[in-house]
Amino acid sequence: MKKILIPVDFSKHSEYACVLAAKIAKKSNSEVHIIHMVELPSGIIDMGAGSNFSIPESMLYLRKVREKLFDIKNNYFPDFDDIQHAIRFQNPFEGIRDYSKKIGADLIVMGSKGQTALEEIFIGSNTEKTVISMDIPVLITKKDNDNFKFKKLVFASTFEKDEADAFEGFLSFVENFKSKIYLLKINTPQNFENTSDSKKKIEDFIKDYNLDNYSINIYNDKSVEEGILNFSKEKDIDLISLATHGRTGLSRFFNGSISLNLSKNVLKPVLTFKV
User: Fold this and answer.
1) Residue-wise pLDDT tens for the chain (275 aa)?
2) Confidence (pTM)
3) Which helix (H) or strand (E) holds 213?
């Protein structure tokens, strides 16, 4: 994990992402890149074109954007020697996608504005587009992470063979921290499996990995997303990790409706890996 990309829109949610990314970068000795996207109206090629944009106004706007980016550097990354930043004239999704490829980013850290972090992934936002299209991990957060610790991390999965790469990505992330890993499988009434079979599936899944501080957990709930969040609340989990499945986002993983009324207090950063 050598390069971390943080898309910012100067909202409080992107500030939360900066706080979390700074903690990760310190632990992993990573290079930090900050990007801000300027989405131009349809038909406008650049900030100096079109009747509604004058060159002086455009230059003033860009100057203010740069000032805000420098404020982010000074406020959230004061101990870092070299923080890179960029301004892209693209819609947010395309800007994140293209710039992450350009710099060879290993991790994207984003703020989420949805009612819940998991809802944000589902509802067709730029966050969802980023999550389901990126081949690199995407970490989503919507809460202040100033007191965030990396002590307890969940890997929630169906533990099928096609999620092995996602699990290896998770282990690569975890190796930077001295964390306890909770391997979690949720059983629901619609997709039930007895505990012994579920446990054996997880044991078979991890047998080729040299795991140390971990536990196997089978949890029953009405839906997978509620099971993940309820388990995380009970265990006071710090971060939830999931595997996503291509264009369908997390729908294959969750296979159920979204619970919109989950308490905001149980929300944790969500780390996604594309399968």
Assistant:
1) 789 999 998 888 889 999 999 999 998 889 999 999 887 654 444 444 444 555 677 778 788 888 999 999 999 999 888 789 998 887 777 888 889 999 999 999 988 765 444 444 444 455 556 666 678 888 888 777 677 788 999 999 889 888 899 899 999 988 888 899 999 999 988 888 899 999 999 999 999 998 989 999 999 998 887 888 889 989 999 998 887 765 444 444 443 333 333 333 346 788 888 77
2) 0.81
3) none
